[in-house]
Please model this.
Amino acid sequence: MFSRFLKRQYIPLYGLLLVQLLMGMMLGPRSNFFQIYLNEAVAYPVWQVSQVLALGQVVTMLSSILAGSLGDRWGHKWVLALGMLALVLSNLLFNVEIPGAVIVLWCVGSFGMALTTIGGQGYLTMASSVGVLGLASALYNWGYTAGGAIGTPLATVVLGENNYVLLGLTLAGFTLLPVIVASLLPQLQPSEARKRKRGNNVGYSIFLRKRIFILALLRFLPTCYYGITSLFPILIKQQTGDNNAVAWFATVYLISASLAQLVAGRASDRYGVRMPTRISFGAILVAIAGTILTVPSIWGMYIFGTLGISAAWALSTLLPGLVMTAAEPEIHGRVFGGLHMTWTIAMMLGTLLGGALLDIDIRLPFVIVGVLNVIAFMLTVPFFRSAKREAAVAEV
Model:
C-alpha cells in the first residue's frame, strides 16, 4: 500500500505530512482549552464564548477567499507558512486576560487557520501524483486527528493547575517548528508554459464554470447533513442521560471515520475518485434513511450516526481528488478557498437547521438534508461527465 510513497519525488509530501502532524499537536489543545480559558480566566458566560467561537468561524470563512487567491499568486508553501506565523502570534492569547485583546488574537488565529487550511490542501495536490493522492489525503487528515490525540494530554501536563501563561508560551514556541519545516519545503507551482496555455483566470469567476459550480454543490449539500450530526451528542445525552454513552459514541465514530478515510483514499488511488465518491454519497443517504426510521433509538443513532459521519469524512479525503478532476493546478488555491467558504456556510446552516427543527420533530431536519443529498448524488453524474469531456478536449 505504501510502496509508491517510497520515492524521492515525494520528499515534499513527507514534509507536508510532518507539518500537519505538528499542527495537529498544537491545534488540538488550543481549541480544547480556549473555550475553558474564556469561561474561567476571562469570565465569559457560555453564550459569550459561543459568540467568540462563531466570530472566529466567520473570520476563517472570509479569509479563505484571500487565502485562495494568495495561494495561486504566491504559491501554496508561503500561504501555509504565513498562516502558521499568524497562529504563533495568536497563541499568546493565553497570556492576556483583556477581553478585547483575547478576541483580536483569536481572530488573528482564525485568519491563520484559513491560510494553513487552503495552503496545505493546495500544496497536497501539487506534491502528490494521481496514484497516491487518495492515500496522501487520508494521511494528511490523520495528521490533525493523531496530532490532537498526542498534543492534548501533553498540553494538560503543561497547563497543570490553570497555568495558562505557560501554556500560551509553549504553544507559541512549538508552532515555530512547523513554520521552520514549511519554510524548508520546495516551492511547487505549475510551469509558466502551462499558465500561458491556460490563459488568465480572473478571480473567483472560475466558480461559474459548470464542473466547478457542481463541485461547490457537492461540497455544500453533504456538509449540511454533517452540520446536523454535530448535535448527535446532545440527542444521545437526552435519550440516555449518560455521559459515558456520549463518550463511547465519539470514540466509535472517530475510529470508524478514520478507517473510512483510509479506505476511501486507497480506493480512489486504485479505481479513480468517481466510484468512492458515489459510494460515500450512497452511504450518507442510507445513514439518513436509517436515522429517520430508527429515532429515537439509541442504537439507531450509534449505527447510522457513525455511518453518516464516516461517509462525510471519506468525502473530505476525496476532496483533493475531486478538485484535481475539476480544475487545473494553477487555480487550485481559489477552488479550495471557495470550497472552504462553502463548507463553513453549510456547517452553520446545518447546525442551525438541526437546532431549530429537532424540537419540533427529530426526523424533520434529516428529511430535509436527505432531499439535498439525493440531489447531490444525482449531481455526480454531470460532474464526472463534464470533467471527462474537459479532459478529452485538453488532450486534443
Observations:
- Residues 88 and 172 are 5 Å apart (CA to CA).
- The mean pLDDT is 88.
- The domain at 3-189 is CATH 1.20.1250.20 (Growth Hormone; Chain: A;).
- The longest helix spans residues 364-395.
